[in-house]
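for the writeup, i need someone to sanity check this before i put it in the appendix. the sequnce is what the collaborator sent (i think, or maybe the updated version? ugh). structure was predicted straight from it, no edits. if anything looks off just tell me and ill rerun, i have time this weekend
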Amino acid sequence: MQESGRLVYFNGKFIPESQAKISIYDSALMFGDMVFEMTRSFNQKQFKLKEHIERLLVGVKIFRIPLNYSANQIEDACYKTLEVNKEFFSEDDEHRLMIDVSRGLLGIYQGIGGLHKGPNLIIADFPLKWTVSSMSKLFDTGINAVVTSQRAIPAHLMDPKIKNRSRVFYLMANIEVSQYEGQNNWALLLDPDGFVAEGTGDNFFIVKDKKVITPEGRNILRGISRNYVIEELCPQLGYEVIEKNIEIYDVYNADEAFMTGTPFCMLPVTSLNGLPISDKKVGPIFKSLITQWGTNTDTNIIKQIQNWGDLTTHNINAPTPYKFK
């Protein structure tokens, strides 16, 4: 296969995508010691990039990674990455940035020649449709959320509000759900107290009596999309938002449910463990929220993703985060 032509920002330089590699001695490989963010664009303009970078730098601070970049410098590097890659994107593409920060080489490997010393800042730009094209049908059918035996890791053990690459517990939940019969199954994790926490890379909401309800921000990643729904969309439309503990019973008894996440924005959840939520149809509040999101960004979000269809962008026999041999 030919190289994509895309370039990756790698510690201040642009290198071909195929050459963007960290050492086998990097702390990220040894410990999953990496913080990251993944963004999206609307009409090729980045959405909430500053908020993503702010969250990234909180993780860098807490992990004590000595990264000598300010928020403005990272933002500038992101825009430079978009600029050098724009010729490789068609007009209907959206840009998905992946921003990774690793600690770099552990001390005992510092003496190996030819390896970068110190933290790594890596910014890649690739088409959003790779991530979301397989989700296009879910806007009509909805997701079947499956409660897994794998629990969310509570904040007192490892704070999930730090977006990091130590995500094996997400993977174990996905492996479990991949064995579940039927289609459109997504994991829903409980916290150690049995309350609903989050999905494996998405936040969860229910609707009851026209109130939008979501788990407290304790044992979850506080998503950028979650915050947008809570702080901007719901106030725009006059919906009351409640953050509280949610039990599985509450989900079965809900009028609607949905997930939020950066690439797809929002997806309806129409059943839980195979049992319908309300009439198992996509609800009116979900529709009004995603329509308003589209109005705010001048994008028909559902139509855009459905137009991309179910693209085959990878080897179907290769592993994914959701399908396992």
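The CA atoms of residues 32 and 123 lie 18 Å apart. The longest strand covers residues 95-102.
thx in advance!!
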